[in-house]
Amino acid sequence: MAAAAAVAIPTADADWTVVRRRGRRLGDAPPTACHPDAPPPLPVTPIPWAPSDPSLDPARVSRLVARTHAAIPRVEASRFYRRLLLPDSPLRRRLVLLEPVRISLLGVGSFESCPVARLQLALAALLRRDLLPDAASADLFDPVLSAVECAAAAELGFSVPSLDDGCRRRVEEPTLFYMPHCEVSLYDALLAANWDSPAQLRRVCVLGNSFQWYAIQAEYDRSGPAAKAAHVLGARRFACEEPVGETGDLDDEDWFTRAFNETSWHFFEVDDGVNLAASIAGGRR
């Protein structure tokens, strides 16, 4: 039986409210066609990283760059992307308040072999171009990236780090993290790295799987991965969440829908007096 997932939508007075949405069966994860079913354990501390396939073929790099460039206008012309660009939307106002100066695309998968990953990379390029300042920087990472993909990323304006930090990335400047269909442990690791103060957490914006949906999963399965993500569960108390688009905003083609379904924005508008440690304890309960 399908379950109703909790999401937040903007109201007429620009606040966001939690509503119910029909969704997958409880316990189901979002489609992750380009990601392994059983990812390896996350590194506790950053470890040196090198591409999974070190061979570098310039012809493959050129083809991959061209294929990614071809995906950009397709995403740009979509109904759901036009919805993101509404000039007076709550999303745009929150981004203005956050003033992100970096976008990090984490967990993108192999964008050479997977059409979904290329569409997600195209969205990251558009977000950087249209929603971030001209001087904003960009990086991307996934342990499965090849040398060809790293070279293509560089041509597309994205740097690739030489360390695998397991998403335990403490930000020094307001950052938009685009983490398409990642495992819940990755979102939890990112939040944990920025959990020491409300001011630090306010620098983070996450575009990824719905945290409200993870809360529902945790209620359904008390021993599952979502139930162990204490920071994700704790953050739902003060996270402002808005879905990227409902089903009607997505292209009918399968690859497009799988790239952007079940995705939400999360802003952490937490007051200075909030006890974050207590929020984690509340999340565990």
TrEMBL record:
Signal peptide: none annotated. It comes from Urochloa decumbens. This is SRR1-like domain-containing protein. PANTHER family: SRR1-LIKE PROTEIN. Residues 101-267 form the SRR1-like domain. Belongs to the SRR1 family. Pfam families: SRR1.
